[in-house]
Design brief:
4 helices
Length: about 80
């Protein structure tokens, strides 16, 4: 496998990497591929690595687990 890092690819190669990766989801949901393509625009332009974009995307999700409630003593 060749490197997909920005320093090792051209803009055209990065655009192809994103297009090929997102091509698998085009038929599975209407309109979502365009939004996903937009999400990876920073990678295509050479501003952020794929890893950074994916980590930021995942960080926006909430696990659904709630922590303990706080009270005057710290925890309930």
């Amino acid at each position: 496998m060749t490197s997909i890092l920005i320093k090792d690819t051209t803009r055209e190669e990065r655009e192809q990497i994103v297009a090929e990766s997102l091509g698998a989801i085009e038929a599975s949901c209407e309109g979502c591929a365009a939004g996903m393509y937009e999400m990876y625009q920073d990678y295509i332009e050479g501003r952020r690595e794929l890893r950074e974009i994916n980590m930021a995307y995942r960080a926006g999700y909430v696990s659904g687990q709630t922590g303990p409630d706080r009270s005057d003593c710290g925890m309930v």
